[in-house]
Amino acid sequence: MKGERQQKDDPNKEERPFKYNTGDRTIGIEMSQSASVASAAAEFLADGEPRKGKVNRERTYSRRPGERQAFLVLRDGTGERSHQREEPGVYPAGPCLIRGEEWLLAPETATLYSSWMSCSDEEQAERILQRIYHRLRAAAADLLESADGVWAAVALLYTPELAARPARLAALQDAQLDALFAAALHSQRLGGDSRIDLLAPYPASLEEFAAQREFIEAVAEQTLGHAYAAACRIGALLAPDVGQAAAGEIARIADFLVLDGAAEEAAPGENAAEGFATAAAEVLAAVRRVRPAAAVLAAGAPAAYALADLYEIGLSGVFCSAALRTEALLRAACLTWIARQDNTDAAAGGWQ
In this entry, which stretches build a coiled coil (predicted)? Predict the structure, then answer.
């Protein structure tokens, strides 16, 4: 698969976690960009500086084996999007997670989607799907023009209703990819520097993920050409109950993994955190046995509430909604500061 080839064919390529190395402060850029976070926390973590220039599409989600990966608190969803880029070319610390089904919530798109799902006439359904495509392309263009468009991880459209109708699911995902890549191509021709990575939603096995990856690659190559398609990172959005063996196998060919607590939020608030942290630890252990340098993140409310446990087990970071991100940033700041103090004390004790 392309994912394995990209990691093996170029021994000189330096693998880095998002854009940080061991000497960087873990969430400095995220902290400095969040005006709502207490200044006391920012003192510890705000010395990271945004980098400017053309987007480097060769950046990977991996890290060098043996490095402590930076723990990132990233945005989940469009709720706090800045609609204009303040400084073109400034790299964010990591991607913003955009769930494709969010685009179906726009009033006009939601109406079209409902009509399309209930339509039994194939020709009429095709016409409705074409109109949905134009709405999705407008949503993709809005994303690319916003601050989140500098680097976004977009999950393919997925709902339980669509999962029960595989043909409709495939058709809508195809329309979404066409719309996204067409908008990306238009932006690129106008001098844009956006980076869009893709997430295959909820594969339960290596075979399922491989099929989804091949589908994404085929659409990307047909729309954008080989060079851009080869640079596109493709990850897997995993449900917490994914089998450990399956998670390990998927990690072999996925560029990154996101464990999605929103997939099974059976318990509200912090009641969901303990079970999610346990599931994350099991999945992470299975992935690390197969691929020690893999980047594994978490998303959803349970991930935000379980942040301390996820930090301890060595997860790469969490995606948080606007409502939970400030608290998550503060928790991450405290954990990072405590870890630094412990390391400082240990180093000082070694010289006594």
Answer: none
Residue 234 pairs in a beta bridge with 198
Task: Pull the structure tokens for residue 216.
Answer: 């994404």
**b vs e for 189-220, b when ≥16 Cβ sit within 10 Å of the residue's Cβ?**
eeebbbbbbbbbbbbeebeebbebbebbbebb
Q: In this structure, which topology does domain 15-96+195-350 adopt according to CATH? A: TIM Barrel (3.20.20)
Judged by DSSP in three states, 219 sits in: helix
Instruction: Give the Cα separation of 265 and 251 in Å (integer).
Output: 24
pLDDT over 90 (residue 343): no
CA angle 254, 63, 288 (to 5 degrees): 60
Nearest 5°: phi and psi at 153?
-105, 110
Q: What's the rounded Cα separation, in Å, for the pair 113 and 115?
A: 5
Owner of token pair 């399309």:
116
Q: How far apart are CA 73 and CA 319, in angstroms?
A: 6
pLDDT tens digits for 143-188? 998 888 888 999 999 999 999 999 999 999 999 999 999 998 888 8
- Residue 121: is it exposed, middle or buried by C-beta count within 10 angstroms (0-12/13-18/19+)? exposed
pLDDT in tens, 106-149: 999 999 999 999 999 999 999 999 999 999 999 999 999 888 88
User: Residue 110 corresponds to which tokens in the numbers above?
Assistant: 């939601």
pLDDT mean across residues, the chain: 77
Predicted pLDDT of residue 230: 66
Beta bridge partners of 72: 317
Which residue from 300, 347, 346, 297 is spatially nearest to 94, judged by alpha carbons? 297
